[in-house]
Design brief:
Elements (H helix, E strand, L loop, with lengths): L2 H61 L5 H31 L1 E3 L6 E3 L16 H4 L4 E3 L6 E3 L14
The chain binds zinc ion (2 copies).
The site of one zinc ion has 8 residues, from loops.
């Protein structure tokens, strides 16, 4: 074998080696990607199960079926957040009602739905009992929100009421 042939042979081997290495590297990267995807998929499935478990547990605590001192702290935190959502929703409802109009039953004039009297004929307008303060309110023992006294469950945090 001449020097040249030996050199050529050596280079060819090197190229084949690096091709082989490249192929192995590619396979490893592909496998890593598969594992990463697998971990991600399983983690997502796990998270959604944990969420369902949490919702069901929370439901059981709210109805009094499950009592656990350690879980109580979570419940109080969640009740606080529920209370914030409840208030924001109420504020949103009120803003919606402010912009809404209705027709006066007496003269047919278009008036604000929160108006107590018609601006055209002076007819007294029916307003929802809640707005008139006719509904007796009590404080929810869990979230401390002011809620209608006749509720079986708190409309804010969902706790069963005595
Ligand atoms: Zn009117
Ligand atoms: Zn409540």
């Amino acid at each position: 074998m001449s020097d040249l042939q030996a050199k050529l042979g050596g280079s060819l081997n090197k190229i084949q080696d690096s091709l082989q290495q490249g192929k192995q590297k590619f396979q490893a990267v592909q496998e890593m990607g598969q594992y990463k995807k697998e971990i991600q998929d399983i983690s997502e499935a796990r998270s959604s199960l944990i969420l369902k478990l949490g919702e069901e547990t929370y439901q059981k605590i709210r109805t009094g079926e499950l009592q656990d001192v350690k879980l109580r702290d979570y419940v109080l935190e969640i009740a606080k957040l529920d209370s914030q959502i409840y208030r924001a929703q109420k504020a949103l409802e009120e803003l919606n009602q402010k912009g809404a109009t209705k027709t006066c039953s007496n003269c047919g004039g278009t008036i604000d739905s929160s108006d107590k009297f018609c601006g055209f004929c002076g007819e007294k307008q029916e307003t929802p009992a809640e707005l008139n303060g006719q509904i007796e309110l009590v404080s929810c023992p869990t979230c401390e929100e002011q809620i209608p006294a006749n509720s079986s469950f708190c409309p804010c945090c969902g706790s069963r009421l005595a």
